[in-house]
Amino acid sequence: MMKDDNASLRRRLFIDQAGDGRLSSFLAVVSVFFIGLMFIAVSTDPVVIGVNKGEMPPNITGEARIAHSEWFSFDLYAKFNGSWNGNITTDRWFVIEFMDTDCPYCWRDAETMSQIDAQFGGVIITIVVATELNIAGHESSRKEIEAF
Fold first, then answer.
1. Which of 71, 77, 87, 135 is the most exposed place for a label (fewest CB within 10 A)?
2. Global pTM value
3. What 3 state SS string does the chain have?
4. Which CATH class is domain 61-147?
5. Where are the domains of the chain?
């Protein structure tokens, strides 16, 4: 009886040597999909994030305000020193923060930015750029930016 059970099991395992046709089709489709992804990954230029060493950042222009003063026209490129060489004693560095006054994380990080400005104010220029996220029911205003 045991011999017949083993033979029956072997027969069931080896009845269809080709396997299920659906499995072969699935593997073919998945292979074509991954080959397509690899082609796209190899033939597409990477997304540029930030600037590389020696490159100019995008110019930031608009209305600006220094705490407890009036609004004025700001142009980041006008603040650049053309003979800058990275000397920490004579040259100024820029720290640029992008924030939204309706963002709770931005409010939390504002204290850190204030500490950085207080500690390194003689060496760095802190620039906070106010943006407006598409949050339903929230709008930024100059008064809100001044309070920030």
1. 87
2. 0.55
3. CHHHHHHHHHHHHCCCCCCCHHHHHHHHHHHHHHHHHHHHHHHCCCCCCCCCCCCCCCCCEEEEECCCCCEEEEEHHHHCCCCCCCCCCCCCEEEEEEECCCCHHHHHHHHHHHHHHHHHCCCEEEEEEECCCCCCCCCCCHHHHHHC
4. alpha beta
5. 2-43, 61-147
